[in-house]
């Protein structure tokens, strides 16, 4: 839930990300939330967020458009106070320990293209040797040998 508010006709309304708002947006436009680009889609998303987060927001979409015609700065405020839909809200900095762990894995990642064929060849040789021994035992039993 968000604690940011925008005043529309003197009445404060909560704004922020809401899964219900995203669902309303997808139902109204047929687009997923990550495709919300352009002024018109932002206007629809703004309306959907207000509907989702505020029970007292009872305006129809047409009435909402008329309000925005009188106060166009509301859309700009909404865009500035909320993250872009589909965009992460904050990037985490990597800690020194995480960076060190990744750095320590680098030699293994560099050696992987060499190790995979070597491991494959070794497993193929061992499997062939095992099958050859199994075949010799089976052939010896058929001939009456004591293998």
The H-and-E topology, N to C, reads as EEHHHHH
What is the end-to-end distance?
A: 76 Å
The number of distinct helices, counting runs of at least 4 residues, comes to: 5
User: Can you tell me the residue ranges where pLDDT is under 50 for at least 5 consecutive residues?
Assistant: none
What's the overall average pLDDT, rounded?
Answer: 80
Evaluate the radius of gyration: 32 Å
Tell me what portion of residues adopts beta-strand conformation: 5-15%
> Which structural class should the secondary elements be placed in?
mainly alpha
Query: What oligomeric state is this?
Result: single chain
**Strand order, largest beta sheet:** 1-2
Write a structural description:
The protein is elongated, with a radius of gyration of 32 Å. The chain has 2 domains: 78 residues, no CATH class; 36 residues. The chain starts with a strand and ends with a helix. It contains 5 helices and 2 strands. It has 147 residues and is mainly α. It has a two-stranded antiparallel sheet with strand order 1-2.
Q: Which features does this protein show?
A:
147 residues; mainly alpha; two-stranded antiparallel ribbon; 5 helices
Provide a brief overview of the structure.
With 147 residues, this protein is mainly α. Helix content is 63%, strand content 7%.
Write the layout of secondary structure elements.
Layout: E1 4-8, E2 11-15, H1 19-29, H2 39-53, H3 61-70, H4 73-81, H5 96-143
Antiparallel strand pairs: 1-2
């Amino acid at each position: 839930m968000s604690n940011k508010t925008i005043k529309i006709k003197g009445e404060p309304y909560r704004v922020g990300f809401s899964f219900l708002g995203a669902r309303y947006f997808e139902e109204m436009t047929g687009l997923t939330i990550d495709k919300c680009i352009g002024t018109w889609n932002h206007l629809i998303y703004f309306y959907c967020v207000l509907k989702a987060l505020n029970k007292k927001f009872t305006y129809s979409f047409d009435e909402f458009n008329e309000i925005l015609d009188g106060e166009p700065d509301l859309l700009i405020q909404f865009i500035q106070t909320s993250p872009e839909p589909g965009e992460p809200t904050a990037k985490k900095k990597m800690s020194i320990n995480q960076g060190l762990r990744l750095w320590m894995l680098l030699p293994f990642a560099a050696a992987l293209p060499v190790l995979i064929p070597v491991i494959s060849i070794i497993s193929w040789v061992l499997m062939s040797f095992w099958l050859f021994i199994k075949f010799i035992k089976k052939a010896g039993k058929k001939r009456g040998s004591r293998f």
